[in-house]
Sequence to fold (233 residues):
Amino acid sequence: MSLYLGTQKVKINLNGGKKHAFLGRPDYLIFDGKLVFADPKIYLQSSGTQYIDTGFTADGESGFDIRYHVTTGNNGALYGARAGYRSRAYMYLVADNYRVDYGNIAAVSSPLGLSKGRLVSGLENNNVVWRAYDSAGTLQQEFSTAKQTFTTPASVALYAKKDNDTVDNTKAIAKIYYFKIYDADELKHHFVPVPQGMVIGDTTISAPCMFDIVTQTPFYNDGTGDFVYGKDN
Fold:
């Protein structure tokens, strides 16, 4: 549902006349105190020192969906966690022409080579499949590997990766427009950028951050400096 209601609160009738309150902002839709929609042009920009701990520990059946724009190539990671090189890894690296690591495999198939676009991964017929789309939404590459049995040793970081439980210096310099995390077919998190001062239900956002539509929880910067909130033209 994509409704732009300005800044006013309105009432509309649904379900046989039952009233529901919608609060509109120029770029968001809040339904009965819950954020349900964000404009896909909105982003949260990192400078290479920020990251977010998602709290989600990945395994061989996890899936991810991210739309991003790497603004500066810096050998960083857009998301991930691992025990070490080719060990219990699930991540997407800006390094080496944008490669993905999974389980005990590094640089699955050929490099992606997309600095801007969307990467989707997930379990299909006992294989893990990756699909890379360019910024226009056109499929550029698809590849797969057999499902492995493993669990990452720590929760997945966004804008960075963890080696065991330590976030290293390979943080991406990038805009992220959304990030979805799946446990098999179940959507566990759907992160979208929100600005400082936005009010969602009883929560006032204290700094630019990612807001999880699934749990209705803000996820703030766990690194240093500040994210920059913005919107593409």
